[in-house]
Input
Amino acid sequence: MLGYAEIASHFRGQITDGELNPGDKMPSYSDAAKQFKVNRTTVVRAYDILKSEGLIVSRPGKGTTVAARPSIVISGVDRLDRLNRTGRRYGSGEDSTGHRVMRRSVYDADVCRALELEPGDEVVIRIRTFRQDGQPTSVGVSVYPPRTTNEVPELAEEGRMERYFGDIYT
Output
């Protein structure tokens, strides 16, 4: 049996992945309770969490719907998880702009260790702004060891990559 946090997480994932879009009707408390085999109070608590996050809205007599402009900030890990689950790089109404590329020396011990580099080695940094319905929501920064540009030359080019880096690199 799921708790309210897991039910909220389920619907949050559907909204983030674009399975539920702005204006879509959420299941009634009773229908969701049946779906998850929980009592109505558990669903109410889950929906209260989603309301407090600005993801859904309730209107008396109209039910609960996905917010017109859900306020979702997605991390890089969330994006990779979504890509693995759905095969989509972007959610509904989401895009990215302002793609920039630069090369810099890296001295951060964690970055050097993760990329198997020595302090002072050069890295390729890609920066872009993610937008939801044309409004900026977050900035993405990716750091690559220069050897990856041998396999994926697009990494070193300004502009949005047409294909996902992981697909090309694999």
User: Anything to note?
Assistant: The first helix runs from residue 4 to 17. The chain has two domains: 4-66, 76-169. Residues 76-169 form one domain.
